[in-house]
Amino acid sequence: MKVNCKAEIVKIEQLKQDLYKFSIKAEEIVSSSKPGHFIEIRVVDGIEPLLRRPISIYNLDKENGILEFIFQVKGKGTELLSKRKVGEKLDIIGPLGYGTFKVKDYQNVAIIGGGIGMFPLYELAKELKQKTTTNVHVYMGFRNKELITLEEEFKNVSDELTITTDDGSYGISGFAINELKKDCQKQAPDKIFACGPLPMLKAVQAFANENNIPCEISLEQKMACGLGACLGCAVKTAKSPSDAPEYWHVCKAGPVFNATDVEI
Amino acid sequence: MNTSVNLAGIKMKNPVTVASGTFGYGREFEEFIDLNKLGGICTKGTSLKPRAGNKPPRVYETPAGMLNAIGLQNPGVTYFMENDLPYLKKFDTAIIVNACGSTIEEYVELAKVLNTLDIDGVELNLSCPNVKAGCLAFGTTYEGVKEVTSQVRKVLDKPLIVKLTPNVTDITMPAKGAEDAGADGVSLINTLLGMSIDIHTRRPHLANNTGGLSGPCVKPVGVRMVYQVAGKVNIPILGLGGIVTANDAIEYMLAGASAVSIGTGNFIAPDVAIKVVDGIEDYMKKYNIQDINEIVGTVQMN
Fold this sequence. Notes:
- The complex is a heterodimer.
- Chain A is α/β, with parallel strands linked by helices.
- Chain A is built from six helices and 17 strands.
- Chain A has two domains: 3-96, Beta Barrel (Elongation Factor Tu (Ef-tu), domain 3), CATH 2.40.30; 108-263, 3-Layer(aba) Sandwich (Rossmann fold), CATH 3.40.50.80.
- In chain A, strand 5 and strand 6 form a beta hairpin.
- In chain B, helix 2 (104-115) runs parallel beside helix 4, helix 6 packs parallel to helix 7 (246-255) and helix 7 (246-255) packs across helix 9 (272-286).
- The longest helix of chain B has 15 residues, at 272-286.
- Chain B is α/β, with parallel strands linked by helices.
- Chain B has helices at residues 77-88, 104-115, 135-139, 142-155, 172-180, 219-230, 246-255, 265-268, 272-286, and strands spanning 5-7, 10-12, 16-18, 40-42, 59-62, 65-68, 94-99, 121-125, 160-163, 185-188, 192-195, 197-198, 203-204, 210-214, 237-240, 259-262.
- The chains are: A alpha/beta, B alpha/beta.
- The A-B interface holds A 1-4, 42, 47-52, 91, 93, 221-225, 227-236, 240, 244-247 and B 21-24, 27-29, 31-32, 44, 52-61, 63-66, 68, 70, 73, 205, 215-216, 244, 264, 266-271.
């Protein structure tokens, strides 16, 4: 059930110079949210900026009805959002999306993310880690040491944690996908979950599809409503030919898709 | 206090409708509002055959507005009549089907199908800026609008509203074309053709390069055009373009609109149309207006 509500900001943490974590009280949304869902936030009441900002859910505290999200200040909308204060109420709609990460009993799961794409993977890892039968291996890729975030948090929700940096300033030097590939030569996971920059997602998708490993990827696309009305956030289906493309929508069929279903 | 209006033969409990392409076929908003409270719903632009739409990115935010180039993605009229119309019929609100096509033949075939359906009216879309064939060919001239409207009129008994593009020198010309061809009303404005460029990649933000501008930034253009058209034609006007509050809606009605549509506003707040309905009633109480129809076209020019 999607809800439009005013959620009180109960905590704000600045994680990096341009990275903020907000905790908001939103019981109704939290109770029906799943890993992979997102919310649409109206950063100000006026008409500028006009559209809501779609932001993924980082953590769900179901007991206390608290939803946490992390965002990077990228433009005027996120800039204004970063200036909001504890105690104020945020106009949000959620949970949004129909395609969410499928949490069930797996044996070996690989969760791979890059940069700010790590955030929607946290709740997933947390819920999978609670399943005692599932071995959770998280791969985190960053450009350099300065950008690494949530290392402790992901350590707590994984059985194994691999961190890579493009420039080798921390962890293993290189791309996270290469570490996943190496590990797969020993034992392939029975499921891969991914979220991150497009080049990484493409590499993960290609690898998973070539090796017949079930894989779910979380996508983003410019969107207006997040409700399935504007049809803005189109993504091409894999089975449709390029001269007669068919489109699904990130907010309606996604944001999480089977890697075999979409062309990115 | 009377809020009901008769727009081009379409009876509505209030003058507030939701605009084509911003409300799907209603389902997406059911969780947020009571659809029975709407005067009417203008459906997503619907064509004879399904349309896939344009490549993404399809939307881009601009100051107090947005650009879109969806490309009329829709499941086609057969799917609509089998799946969406039965759903919409559950509600006590006028159903106005926005009809689009690429050729006159297509518009006529579609109108024949729509004529058999249990709907309240048809909004003929001659004004989508993102589809090359059809809209641009017919929508921008007196002759073009008159030709396609009169062909559709021959096969359509239901109320017919022609949706006009603002991307013309003189919008009263296509409006007159619609009236002379027997349309029951006109709706305006559709989106304004615009473009936005990413200065880092030196490429347009939209995959389609250009798109239709909508939102509060276009409202003054819409109000001006409704005023101009109201002075030239005798058929009623459905006014739209940037309405997000009751005040905006009233402005359009004072300029000459008999009813209004809310478009991009639905993306910001899913309950915006209901707030506009309530706000119009507040305005009527404040100024002791017994019948909302009294205010249509009553702007006093300086």
